[in-house]
Each structure stands twice: as structure tokens, then as C-alpha cells.
Amino acid sequence: MTTPERNPKHRAMRLLLVLRVALIGWLLAAAAGAQVRQPNGVIVPLPADGAPSLQEYLDRRMEVGLDVRRDAAVTPERFTPGCTIRFTVVARDSGYENAFGWYNVVAGRAPTASELHELVGPSAPEGFTATLDFRSNPLWSGGEIGFYLRTPPPYVYYSERAYQPDREVSMGFVHLLIYDSRATPNAFYFAWEDLFNGGDNDFQDLLMIVDNLVCAGGGAPCDTGERGVCARGVRQCRSGMLACVRDTGPSAERCDGLDNDCDGMVDDGDGLCGARQVCDRGVCLERCTQELGCGPGFVCSDRGTCVEDTCAAVTCPEGRVCRMGVCREPCEGVTCPTNQVCRVGRCVDPCAGLTCDGDQVCVAGVCQTRCPCRRCGAGESCFTDGRCRPMACATVSCPAGFFCAAGACRDACAGAVCPNRGACTAGECREPVVMDAGVRPDAGLPPRDAGTPMLDVGVSLDGGRDAGLQDVPRDLGGPDVELLVDDPGANCVCSAPGARSTGLAPGWGPGLAAVLLGVARRRRARQA
Length: 528
Description:
528 residues, mainly beta, 4 domains, five-stranded antiparallel beta sheet, four-stranded antiparallel beta sheet, 3 helices, 26% strand
């Protein structure tokens, strides 16, 4: 008789069974890969014996969608406190009278006993709430903090896992699970297991919630991987991990040089500007025409936008712009005014649209803890807007377009090279504009007379013979009237026989001005 062990069919079936078990185990492990496990493989937390579970405690606090296994984490291990933090005892289901507190994080070592600062005493009951003002706390060094649990034996367990007292014995037994609250902004739950080298894994020996915290590394700018404005994000804690959370969602497209609807196209669509305007590099400008023209070095394109004359026949791929006849990166060669950065070819405030957590403020595009919650550096003073600045600028008030450096006001436009050869004015880069009735290439010359209606720069009439102006009557009360616009510094030079040098013959002024104004208005209406 052939034994089962020697029967090839039985061996094949047993091998298939082993493979199936292994596959099921692998699938379960993959499904639970994000869950926290103890060194022996137990997924935590476990239900409590004879007491409400950790899930029940969180459900009572209206933490909708927070799952104690799926969302359990052992990070972040360090935090940045807001000006004032509030801490509350949610549950205390231990036979020990445990204490909870904080310490200043010192890189590379655990805190000493004298560096542990108690927040919750061993006899504080469930529901106990207190606050701690870090602004006036001399014990705070001004940097990141960690939290600890102290048990009577005595043992101290830390939020920084490298310093656990039983790390060598238990191969890294997990003593703390951390959850970011769904119901309370910038708040974290700390669920502790208090037995040395193991426990019942219910993680409700002491359950605390502490708010007004930012996890270590939070607040830095990041790229979400999405398109348009949805690509810009800020690092925030999500289920114990730093995640890149976009600070702006999709919205209706508008003319601002950005991809507002996050479809990969910038300033696309109709109706972004007024009827006689066109969206040009994020700015609504009056449509240019061949007659009105553009500024020096620019020509009017088929779209009605002013482009560099060397770029008139150049078509660039998406995401690049033409400058001096060559397709370039939008910010290539651009030096923005002080306190601005170049984005998609425009100089903008790096903090515009950025939302920071809790007691944070945006500084140069990065969320930082607001001072005095954050200690300012040497030689700096805390200003009322929550930002640190040099002490030399504490009493200096600068006008718009200037900034304080070394105690003196300096022009923010100094050294700026604006996109598209725009001018820097009052600390901001201005887009080149279409030549029109009030815009001339000689911007430094005195303006035209305020009360005299004039024809647009670049228009000349020669008895009505100019192209497109055949409807101007030749006889305006005298022979051979000629309007010359050959002097950009003058309002106009009009001439008639016997009086060609400086102005109109007596009695011609009001009638001619009215006719010319009507001509200009009719031409604009046809071009719009």
C-alpha cells in the first residue's frame, strides 16, 4: 500500500494547500500592511476586557470615520506646540496611577528625569482638562516637544520610540498609538499601554487628547502631484504620517496666469475678461490693434495681445513662453522684487492663498509657528503679525514698495528683472500694456491736457485719406487740414495754409476736436 506521504497525488494536494494558506496569509498581510503590529505580529489595539473599547471612547467624542485599527499610527513622534495647548483625560482604565507630560526634544538622547514636565498628575480623573501657555513657559526651549507616560514601578515611556525602557527586551514593543482627530483641528489622541515588556494591547490605560499641535515637519510646502493650483500643498499630519495636502482646490478659471480648474491649461476658456479685453499672461488688457499698436519692441498679435516683435511668429509648447525669439521656461531670467517669487512666469507673493495650521503664520511660503509661540533668533524681534524680524527694523515703518533691511527702508524693486520686460513699480512687476489714449511710450513726459479730447497715439489723418477713415469729411471749414502726430511729446500739431506751424486756425478747434473724437470712437467700436 502506498502511504499518503509517498503518494504523488497527496503530495501535490498538500503543496497546493500550503500555497493557498500562504497566499491567504500574504493577502491578509497586504490588507493590514498599514496597521500597527506588535513584535509578535498582533495587530493593535485589541478590544478591552470588561470595559469600553478604544473605538467606543472615540465614537463618544464624535470622531466620525476614525477607525482605531486602520488609523492607528506610531508617528509623529515629535510636535511643535501652539501658543497655548489644551490637554484632556479621555479615559483611564489602568490599575496604575499614570502621569502624563512633555519634554523638550534634544536630538540623539532621551530626556533626563529633571527634563520631564508633568501635565496630568496620577490622580487626575477622566474629563480633567487644563491648558499650558508656552509663550510664558520658561521651561520650553522654543523647539519641538515630545510626550511621555510615567508609571509607578517606575518606568517612563516616550513618544520617541527609540528611548523606550524595554526596547531591548521586547524587540520594540509598542506603548503608544497616535491618532489625529477628525473632530478637533490640530489635535492628537495619545493612547498608552503601560506594562513593561507587554500588556493586554487595549491601549486605554491612559487616553489623552492634546490640541493646538503641529506634527514635526508640518507646514513645509510640497507638490501634491496634481495639476494647476491643485499642485501646491503644505505638509500636514494625516493618520500619523506627513501628507501633502493641497491648500487650494479647483475653482472656475479666471485670468490670473494660473490653472484654476486644475485641468492642465492656464487661462483657458471664454469670458475671462471684458468684451473689449483679452487675457494676456494672467492680466486682462485692452485688445491691441495694428493702428493703436503696442509699446516699443512689441507688436500686436492675431489674438489682440502685445508680444515681443521677435516672438510674433514663434509658437511655444505648453508651459513655455517666448522671450527674445526663444521658447524658455516661464521664470528663466526673471528676478522678482524682494518678498516675491516667480511662479508660472509671474512674480507673486509666495504666501498668497496658503493656509497654515493653528498658531502658524506664513513666512516666505512656509508655515512657521507664530511668534511669540516660536522664539525669535538672535538679533530678531517678534512683530505683532507673528513674524520675526531684525530688531533694527522694530521701529522702522516703510512706505508701500519698500522693505526694511538693517534699519533702513530699501526699494523692493532694486535689481528686479520682471517677466516679459515689464516695469517694477511700488514693489510689484507690472505687465506691458497696449498703447491707448492715455498710454504712450514716453511715460516720463508730462501728460496730455486733461480737458482736450485727443486722438490715440499712432493715428494720423491726411484729409480723411488714412486707411479705415474714409468717412472723415475732407472739408472741415477750410482747405487741406492736416493732423500730424509725429511728436509724441506734443498734444497735436495741426496745420492749414498760412498757419501750419503750431495750431488750429481760429474757430476750427471745437469743431475739429468733436469730429476727431467721433472718428476715434467709431473706429474702436468696429475693432472691438
